[in-house]
Structure formats: structure tokens, C-alpha cells
Amino acid sequence: MINLYTAQNADPDVRVDMETFLNHVVPEGPKAPWVHTAEGDDDMPAHAKSSMLGCSLDIPITQGRLNLGTWQGIWLCEHRDRASSRRVVVTCHGQLR
């Protein structure tokens, strides 16, 4: 499961803290309470984390440039320990000037 979302991106500690938070809220491993483990101990936690973060992202573009906040970045999050290859689909809506 992967997610794209925007988050504070200036300090790398934020990524570490975000992963710590997600792993605290959605525990992984053989002692976790999940029943669905068809593809391993990280299977159900990946589904839960993905549902928390959503599966799409709207990104504002103004005059051909990303229009994000000063410290904001776009994160691609993989929730599986051993992920397969992934594709990101980009669809643009709007008017050219």
C-alpha cells in the first residue's frame, strides 16, 4: 500500500516521528492483533495505514509551479516491508494560460 500526501518536509525528524506515530497507532509484527495476514505480518497494518492517509492527493499548481507551503513537501509512503514495484498516475485538470 502506498500513499501520497503533503507534510512538513524541512526537518527529516518529521518523517521519523510520522513513522513512529503510525507504528504506534497501527502496530506491526507477530504480536499485533490482526487476523488478516495473508501476505505477511505487515499486510493488515499496510491496509489500515493506507486508509488513514487516503489514496489520492490534490496538488495546487499556479503558473506552472507547485503551489505548496514554505515547509511543505509531497511524501510517497510505502507501508509494506518488502514492496513490489509501484506506479503513480498523474491527472491534471485546469486551464492553460
TrEMBL record:
PANTHER family: SECONDARY THIAMINE-PHOSPHATE SYNTHASE ENZYME, UNCHARACTERIZED PROTEIN YJBQ-RELATED. It comes from Coccomyxa subellipsoidea. This is Uncharacterized protein. Signal peptide: none annotated. It holds the Pfam family YjbQ. PROSITE patterns: UPF0047. It comes from the Eukaryota. The lineage of its organism: Eukaryota, Viridiplantae, Chlorophyta, core chlorophytes, Trebouxiophyceae. InterPro entries: UPF0047_YjbQ-like, YjbQ-like_sf.
